[in-house]
Design a protein that fits this description.
It is built from 9 helices and no strands. By secondary structure, it is an all-alpha fold. It has a domain of 59 residues.
Length: 175
């Protein structure tokens, strides 16, 4: 009898100790107030080291060097206005809602797999898992996508095969 993730039903391996698939384990862990407190403490410890704090400051300064003084001032003022709003419970709840996460996931998919038509994305994902490589899956998918050279090649070969079969059938019937 195999174990499954209680959230999605995915079959778990024998080595799995948590009882959840990786995405749901991470989602549960990240939603935990205890984990968030540990992460915040870790960030504080990291930034307590002067070298780390200085490296972060250097990176920020380097990013700001290319901006005009007016743009720097504008960004600073905007940041001062936005921080309380972005940290409010209402905004955090909206940003972490299932609808917002689903919209974010669909936008990421549209960006990352822009070459694949929406109706073929589930097929591409299944092939990626089966073949273990997104590159191999894309090569297999290319003949299915209209407008690609592989699709044109497949169409021509299908037409040639149909002509060959028709010719063979006509020759067989003529005798």
């Amino acid at each position: 009898m195999s174990r499954t993730c209680p959230d999605c039903g995915k079959v778990l391996t024998a080595k799995n100790k948590s009882g959840f698939c990786a995405p749901h384990l991470l989602a549960r862990r990240n939603a935990s107030a205890e984990h968030q407190a540990k992460a915040a403490a870790g960030r504080k410890l990291y930034l307590a080291i002067p070298a780390n704090r200085e490296a972060l400051a250097v990176a920020v300064r380097k990013g700001m060097e290319n901006l005009s003084p007016a743009e720097r001032t504008r960004r600073s003022e905007q940041g001062k206005r936005m921080v309380p709003t972005l940290q409010s419970a209402e905004v955090q709840a909206k940003a972490n809602s299932p609808e917002a996460k689903a919209a974010s996931a669909s936008k990421r998919t549209a960006t990352m797999i822009h070459w694949c038509p929406a109706d073929l994305i589930p097929t591409y994902r299944a092939l990626s898992k089966k073949l273990g490589s997104s590159r191999a899956a894309r090569e297999v998918m290319a003949p299915m996508i209209e407008g690609t050279a592989a699709h044109a090649r497949r169409t021509v070969l299908n037409h040639q095969d149909a002509q060959r079969i028709r010719h063979e059938r006509d020759r067989a019937q003529s005798y």
